[in-house]
Amino acid sequence: MKLKDGMLLFHGSYTPVEKIDLERCVKGKDFGRGFYLTSDLNQARNFIRSSI
User: Fold this and answer.
1) pLDDT in tens, 6-16
2) Which SS3 state, helix, strand or coil, does residue 41 take?
3) Matching Pfam families, A to Z (predicted)?
4) Maximal CA-CA distance, the chain
5) Given a cut of 70, is residue 52 above it in pLDDT?
6) Residue 47 main-chain phi, psi, to 5 deg
């Protein structure tokens, strides 16, 4: 996801996400149910590896 200011954000998902659906988000995560993004591509990649 690219913001208007040019900042890139990544979601650690192994499937493409066309629309954010909070109903599909798992409860009990560090900061509660949500769609988590990061500006660190390596962090997103590591999440994918740990979730499969």
Assistant:
1) 999 998 887 88
2) helix
3) DUF3990
4) 32
5) no
6) -65, -40
Question: In the structure, how many helices (H) and strands (E) does the chain have?
Answer: 1, 0
pTM above 0.85, yes or no: no
The 8-class DSSP code of residue 15 comes to: S
| Distance, CA of 17 to CA of 13 (rounded, Å) | 8
Task: Please state the length of the chain.
Answer: 52
Written as six digits, the tokens of 24 are 């599909």
Q: Give the contacts of 39 (CB within 8 A, at least 6 positions apart).
A: 7, 8, 9, 10
Q: Which residue has the tokens 């990061």?
A: 38
Whether 8 contacts 1, CB under 8 Å: yes
CA 39 from chain centre, in angstroms, equals 10
